[in-house]
């Protein structure tokens, strides 16, 4: 199965499969990448088993976990750092909620399919610049994962666009010049052709 086929299959799921627990070694690496100060209040918006929460560097920390009756979308306390592995099916809503809390740092482990120019633009438009990006492979996760660290009022370390460019591809029998599969229309024989045979 190709990556494109797998992606389409994931997109068409009726119930998202969002429970992927981060290995502790990855959570620790992620947390260590964040420049922090002792007074920072950390927040894990989807605590799960506490793999991130239990490894935060101080005791000033908050959490949400829907399965424990603490909905991230109802959380409104002052925090300085959001760090964790959110459910990808809710990533747009989670980024919107994260920005609304106005922390200094927003940092998520995000799957490759969720790391898009539109989401980077959303973070930029809300005053957050991507200051660190770390790409890694986690066994059991789909594709590569990205540790993204955004900081308020900072510049992005990379450039991005949301515009689509269309180049011409070499023509193939079943593909048009833009890489789209051609619709194959079966030849319909006319009555004249049928009578000749």
What does this structure look like?
By secondary structure, the protein is an alpha/beta fold. It has one domain (3-152): Rossmann fold (3-Layer(aba) Sandwich), CATH 3.40.50. Helix content is 22%, strand content 18%. It has helices at 3-11, 24-32, 91-100, 117-125, 191-196, and strands at residues 42-44, 61-63, 81-84, 105-111, 128-137, 144-152. The protein has a six-stranded mixed beta sheet, sandwiched between helices. Helix 3 links the parallel strand 3 and strand 4 (105-111). It is globular. It starts with a helix and ends with a helix. The model has no long low-confidence stretch (mean pLDDT 83).
Rg (C-alpha, Å): 23 Å
The number of helical runs is 5
| Average pLDDT rating | 83
CATH architecture: 3-Layer(aba) Sandwich
Helix content: 10-25%
CATH topology: Rossmann fold
CATH class, named: Alpha Beta
Count of distinct structural domains = 1
Shape: globular
In whole angstroms, how far apart are the ends? 42 Å
CATH level 4 superfamily: Vaccinia Virus protein VP39
Q: Give me the strand/helix succession.
A: HHEEEHEHEEH
pLDDT < 50 runs, ≥5 residues:
none
Helix/strand-derived class? Answer: alpha/beta
Number of strands: 6
**Numbering strands along the chain, what is their spatial order in the largest sheet?**
2-1-3-4-6-5
What profile does the largest beta sheet have?
Answer: 6 strands, mixed
Strand composition percent = 15-25%
List the helices and strands and how they pair.
Blueprint: H1 3-11, H2 24-32, E1 42-44, E2 61-63, E3 81-84, H3 91-100, E4 105-111, H4 117-125, E5 128-137, E6 144-152, H5 191-196
């Amino acid at each position: 199965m190709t990556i494109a086929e797998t992606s389409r299959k994931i997109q068409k799921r009726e119930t998202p499969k969002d429970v992927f627990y981060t290995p502790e070694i990855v959570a620790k690496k992620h947390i260590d990448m964040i420049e922090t100060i002792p007074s920072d209040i950390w927040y894990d918006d989807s605590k799960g088993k506490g793999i991130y929460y239990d490894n935060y560097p101080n005791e000033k920390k908050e959490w949400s976990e829907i399965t424990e009756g603490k909905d991230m979308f109802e959380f409104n306390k002052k925090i300085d750092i959001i760090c964790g592995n959110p459910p990808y099916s809710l990533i747009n809503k989670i980024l919107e909620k994260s920005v609304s809390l106005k922390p200094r740092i927003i940092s998520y482990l995000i799957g490759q399919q969720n790391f898009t120019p539109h989401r980077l633009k959303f973070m930029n438009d809300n005053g957050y610049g991507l200051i660190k990006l770390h790409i890694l492979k986690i066994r059991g996760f789909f594709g590569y994962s990205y540790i993204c660290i955004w900081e308020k009022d900072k510049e992005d370390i990379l450039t991005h666009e949301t515009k689509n460019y269309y180049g011409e591809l070499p023509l193939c029998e079943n593909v048009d010049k833009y890489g789209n599969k051609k619709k194959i229309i079966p030849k319909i024989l006319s009555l004249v052709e049928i009578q000749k045979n």
